[in-house]
Amino acid sequence: MKINRIDHVSINVNNLSEAKAFxxxxxxxVKAEWEMEGEQLDRIVGLKGVKTACVGLGMPDGxxxxxxxxxxxxxxxxxxxxxxxxxxxxxxxxxxxxxIEAIVANLKSKGxxxxxxxxxxEDRYKLCYVRGPExxxxxxxxKIR
Length: 145
Known about the structure:
By secondary structure, the chain is α+β, with helices and mostly antiparallel strands. Helices cover 19% and strands 37% of the residues. The strands form 2 sheets. Strands 5, 6, 7, 8 and 9 form a 5-stranded mixed β-sheet that branches. A 4-stranded mixed β-sheet has the order 1-4-3-2, sandwiched between helices. A hairpin with a 5-residue loop joins strand 8 and strand 9 (137-143).
C-alpha cells in the first residue's frame, strides 16, 4: 500500500470569478470547469442539497491541480476568515516561481496584500508570502541557482 501523489488541492470560495482571475494572473491555466449536484455528491461531501460550481486550474506542464469550488448550497454564511501564517490547520500553498520580484511587483500593483518584502533564505531561496482573494495565503519561492 502506498500513496502515489497528491491529486489536487481544493479551495472553497464565495467569488469564483475573482479567485479564478487571481490564479490565472499567476500563470495557471483553466483545465476544466463544471457544476455538480445530486445525491451522490451529497454522500461524497457529507452534506445535504449540495450544488457547486468548480474551476480546475493547473500549470502548463500539468504538475499542479487546484480546484476552486463555489458552494451554492448549502452555503457557508460566515464571513471569510483572514488567517495568519501561524493559524492552525492547512494554511498555504507554495509555488516555485521564476522572477519573484516581477511577480510580487505585479501582485502589488493589483492591490494584493504582501506579508513581507522578499526575503532571502540562506543562499537557497527568495521567499515571500502573499494573501489572495478570500484569505488564500500563497508562499512564493524562487530557488537561487
